[in-house]
Write a structure and sequence with these properties.
About 20% of the residues lie in helices and about 20% in strands. It has seven helices and 15 strands. A seven-stranded mixed sheet has the order 8-7-6-5-4-3-15, with no helix packed on it. Strand 13, helix 6 and strand 14 form a beta-alpha-beta unit.
Length: about 350
C-alpha cells in the first residue's frame, strides 16, 4: 500500500495542474472579490434569512433502488449532490452524503427535514462510486464507511484517496485521476476526469487534492457529472470535445456574490449546460443543506426560468423521483408549494 501511495504522490508532483505546492484552477480563481472581507462574509452568514430553509419537510418519492432495472440510464437524486445512475444493472453512486450532516461536527449543517429520507441501507450494490472532491458535503466518511462492503470500485481526483483509505478502501479499489485522463471501467463504460473551477480541503489547507468533473460514456449514452464549479471556459472545451450530452448534472445552489468564482448562479448553470451541448439539464447542489444565503427554492425557480428562456430542457425531480434519460424528465414546480 505504501508503494501505491508513493506512486500517487509522484503523480501529483508531476501533474501540470499542481503548482506551488497545491492544485490550481485553469483560470485565476480568487476565493472572494477583493472588496469583500471574510469578516463581512461571516457576519452575513450568521444572519441568514429564515427562507434559506423550507417551511416544512422536503417532499420525497420512495423508489426501490434494489429492484431498479432500465435499459436507459435512470438518475435518482437524493438531495444536494448525491445521486444514483443506473443502466442495464450497472449502478453508479456519486458523492453520497447520508449521515444527516455536511460538517465534521454532526450538529452543524444539518439536512432539511425529509431530505434525509434515503440512507446507505437503501442503496443497491454499487459497481462504481465517483467522488468529485473532498469537501464535507461531497465526501462523507460516515456514509462511505457504511457503504464499504457494497462498493466495488471508487474513482476520484488525484490526492482524494488519502481521505478514502480508511473509510472506503477494500484493497486496491481506488483509482485517482488527473484532468483529461480516461479509464475503461467495463465493456461500453468509459470515464474521463475533466476540469472544474473550484478548490479542495477539509481543514485549513487548501489544494492538496484535485476537484474534478467527469464524463461518463455508458452503453451509448453520454452523461456529464459536474461536481462543484464556478463558470468558466472549461465547459465549452468539454462540450467541444465530448458533446453533445444526453444529460448534464450541474451544481445550481449555494451561490453568492461573495464567492462568484467557485459556484455558479442558476443562469450560469444554464449557460454551462448550453456550452456542454446538453440535451437536458438536472440541477443539483440544492434542496438539502444551507451553505449560502439565498432562499432554499431560489435555485430551481431561476434555473427553470432561464432554461425556458434559452430553450433548454430542465428537469426538476423530487428527491427519490426517477429521471429516465431520453424518456422521462419530471418538470413539475413542486417546490413552489412545498
Amino acid at each position: 500500500m505504501q508503494r501505491k501511495l508513493s506512486s500517487i504522490e509522484e503523480r501529483i508532483q508531476q501533474s501540470q495542474n499542481f503548482r506551488n505546492g497545491a492544485f490550481q484552477n485553469l483560470s485565476l480563481t480568487p476565493m472572494k472579490p477583493e472588496n469583500v472581507t471574510y469578516f463581512t462574509m461571516l457576519r452575513k452568514m450568521l444572519r441568514r434569512p429564515a427562507n434559506t430553509r423550507p417551511p416544512g419537510p422536503m417532499p420525497t418519492v420512495h423508489t426501490d433502488l434494489r429492484a431498479l432495472y432500465s435499459e436507459k440510464p435512470v438518475v435518482i437524486w437524493f438531495g444536494h449532490s448525491s445521486y444514483l445512475i443506473h443502466v442495464k444493472g450497472f449502478n453508479i453512486l456519486v458523492d453520497p452524503v447520508f449521515s444527516g450532516s455536511a460538517s465534521p461536527m454532526s450538529f452543524m449543517v444539518k439536512a432539511f427535514p425529509g431530505a434525509d429520507a434515503y440512507t446507505p441501507a437503501d442503496m443497491p450494490e454499487i459497481d462504481l462510486m465517483i467522488i468529485t472532491h473532498n469537501h464535507y458535503d461531497h465526501l462523507d466518511k460516515k456514509t462511505l464507511a457504511a457503504l464499504k462492503p457494497h462498493t466495488r470500485q471508487i474513482y476520484t481526483g488525484l490526492g482524494v484517496g488519502r481521505d478514502l483509505q480508511h473509510c472506503l478502501a477494500t484493497g486496491n479499489n481506488i483509482t485517482e485521476m488527473d484532468w483529461w485522463e480516461t479509464r475503461e471501467i467495463a465493456k461500453e463504460i468509459v470515464l474521463t476526469a475533466t476540469p472544474a473551477r473550484h478548490f479542495s480541503g477539509r481543514g485549513l489547507k487548501r489544494g492538496g487534492s484535485l476537484w474534478s468533473s467527469f464524463v461518463l460514456e455508458i452503453f451509448g449514452y453520454k452523461i456529464f457529472i459536474g461536481g462543484d464549479s464556478g463558470y468558466d471556459t472549461h465547459f465549452k472545451a468539454i462540450g467541444d470535445k465530448f458533446g453533445p450530452f444526453d444529460l448534464v448534472i450541474l451544481e445550481c445552489g449555494q451561490y453568492n456574490d461573495y464567492w462568484p468564482f467557485i459556484h455558479m448562479k442558476p443562469e450560469e448553470t444554464v449557460q454551462a449546460a448550453i456550452d456542454l451541448q446538453a440535451k437536458a439539464l438536472l440541477p443539483v447542489h440544492w434542496g438539502k443543506f444551507v451553505l449560502a444565503m439565498h432562499a432554499w427554492n431560489d435555485s430551481p425557480e431561476r434555473a427553470t426560468a432561464a432554461g425556458a428562456q434559452r430553450g433548454l430542457l430542465v428537469t426538476t425531480p423530487r428527491i427519490g423521483e426517477p429521471v429516465t434519460v431520453g424518456a422521462h424528465y419530471p418538470q413539475e414546480h413542486w417546490w413552489a408549494n412545498a
